[in-house]
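Data card: per-record layout.
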Amino acid sequence: MGIRIFLNAVTRLPRNEMITRAERAISESGGWVLGHHLYSNLAISLAFEITVANMAGLLDHLQETALALTSESVAKLTSFARVELGSKANSDESVTGYLHITFIHNEPGLRRDVPAIPG
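The structure for this 119-residue chain is written out next.
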């Protein structure tokens, strides 16, 4: 089934700016974004994949985004990178990650026009 890691964070930065920063942090760490799911303008979940060898850089790059990772997420990344990097045999193994970002703001929810369906 592979290795999975679930991360949580919050931010007060504008939604679009933070999404760009988070995607860039994943890419600069040697990972790639697999997909995302937006929850109006309240939150986003980013699915990504990265190798074990690149996990240590992921924490650094995410912290540079001004994203406030939960202490549990920082602990997971720190211990995961330390334990997994100790074993060179697993360094090329893929990790599937999920980063859930909650946006703190006073904006109203996003409105989307839904086209009428004939019939």
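Known properties of this structure: The first helix runs from residue 15 to 28. The chain has a mean pLDDT of 86.

See the next section for split statistics.
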